User: Fold this.
Amino acid sequence: MAVVAATMVAAAAAHHLERHESVETIPKPGFLFTAKLETTVFRPHGEGPFPVVIINHGKQEGNPRFQHRFRPESAALYFLERGYLVVVPMRQGFAHSTGNYIGAGCNVESNGFAQAHDDEAVLAYLATLAYADRSRVLVVGVSHGGWTALALGALHPEGVKGLVNFAGGLRQDGCVAWENTLARAAGSYGRRTDVPSLWLYGDNDTFFPPSTFNAMYAAYTAGGGHAKLVDYGEFRSDAHLLFASQDGRDIWDPEVTQFLKSLGLPYESVTKPAPSP
Assistant:
């Protein structure tokens, strides 16, 4: 019976999301051409203006063009329940977004900035929407998307009140001393950032073990970055999958809620997903 009930709840939540969901194209102007970013938008009921959360996806192995459109259902529901406009862009070169992925070789700092420019394009687009409150923006990212969020903070984006980094970074086994390079780049971001951030990592993360994320965090905060690290221990067989897992919300929900409260952003649920008819 418990399995059946859980299945029914998941189905109701998925139906709720579909009623709010649209796929839009956001322009990203460049020197030679304008890229088009495939973007999933979940809009709450009402006229707005709504506080905004941008959720950045990770990078899977292989060609980024073959990556599927990111739909973080659990996180989207969490923020919809609190009245947020949820914006999930696919960065340049990923899925159906045009242009090419900018890798920058072993220069992970430059890589992060290249990805963050896509978020800047999204922020510029949001400024044209009457129902989006550009003065109240939260930026969330998972894995490569978490690294993107940290890089964006170093660009001093107007209206962004906080960053949430879920297992952020870029693992490059082919680069010499990639962990040290990652930590140094995090320190560089921290020196340039005045936006508070929340970091969530687990001990059995197959991409970034504790030695790696602790070094990143130490460098970031030593550089002046204002951040809180939450090490939630082990999660299933791989903590890197926390954000994408339905039961992962039980771990991150209270931490994110408290972070929103500390930022003066909406943190209490104002609506619950309605059951399927």
Notes: Confidence is low (pLDDT under 50) at residues 2-12, 273-277. The chain has one domain: 2-263. Strands lie at 21-29, 34-42, 50-56, 85-89, 132-142, 160-166, 197-201, 227-231.
